[in-house]
């Protein structure tokens, strides 16, 4: 059976936690981590039997996420627009077509200046 999950900007919701100008649309999650009612609240993402999670992130101009770490590595795949990422003490400009690895346990952040950015974020097991 084929499953299709839309992750256009119209499917996204404001990210909790005070990240100004950043929205997300959950694409796929490990179904074992979430009860059915929580999956529904996430917009009905594709439920996987694997320890992976994928979401689309939409940064408005001047959007940013606070610096934070994660217990697992994360791929940040820029699909449109441009902005900046910082991993540890290193800051780089990124644009559509760039992929960034945020290593486990290392603080990371992303932000935009005068233009929007769209990315696919894949949390790896």
Task: Kindly describe this structure.
The protein is mainly β and 125 residues long. It has a single domain (15-123), classed as Jelly Rolls (Sandwich), CATH 2.60.120. The chain contains 1 helix and 10 strands; from the N terminus they run ββαββββββββ. Strands 1, 2, 3, 4, 5, 6, 7, 8, 9 and 10 form a 10-stranded mixed sheet that branches. The mean pLDDT is 86.
Defining traits:
single chain; 125 residues; mainly beta; Jelly Rolls; ten-stranded mixed beta sheet; 49% strand
Q: Topology, please?
A:
Elements (H helix, E strand, L loop, with lengths): L12 E2 L7 E9 L5 H6 L4 E3 L4 E7 L4 E5 L5 E14 L2 E6 L3 E4 L5 E4 L5 E7 L2
Parallel strand pairs: 2-3
Antiparallel strand pairs: 1-2, 2-4, 4-10, 5-9, 6-7, 6-8, 6-9, 6-10
Summarize the structure.
With 125 residues, the chain is mainly β. Helix content is 5%, strand content 49%. Strands 1, 2, 3, 4, 5, 6, 7, 8, 9 and 10 form a ten-stranded mixed sheet that branches.
């Amino acid at each position: 059976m084929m499953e299709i999950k839309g992750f256009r900007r119209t499917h996204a919701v404001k990210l909790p936690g005070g990240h100004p100008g950043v929205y997300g649309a959950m694409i796929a999650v490990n179904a074992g981590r979430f009860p059915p009612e929580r999956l529904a609240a996430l917009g009905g993402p594709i439920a996987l039997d694997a320890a992976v999670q994928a979401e689309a992130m939409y940064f408005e101009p001047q959007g940013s996420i606070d610096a934070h770490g994660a217990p697992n590595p994360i791929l940040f795949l820029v699909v449109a627009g441009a902005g900046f990422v910082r991993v540890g003490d290193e800051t780089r400009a990124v644009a559509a077509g760039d992929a960034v690895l945020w290593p486990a346990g290392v603080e990371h952040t992303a932000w935009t200046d005068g233009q929007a950015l769209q990315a696919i974020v894949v949390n790896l097991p």
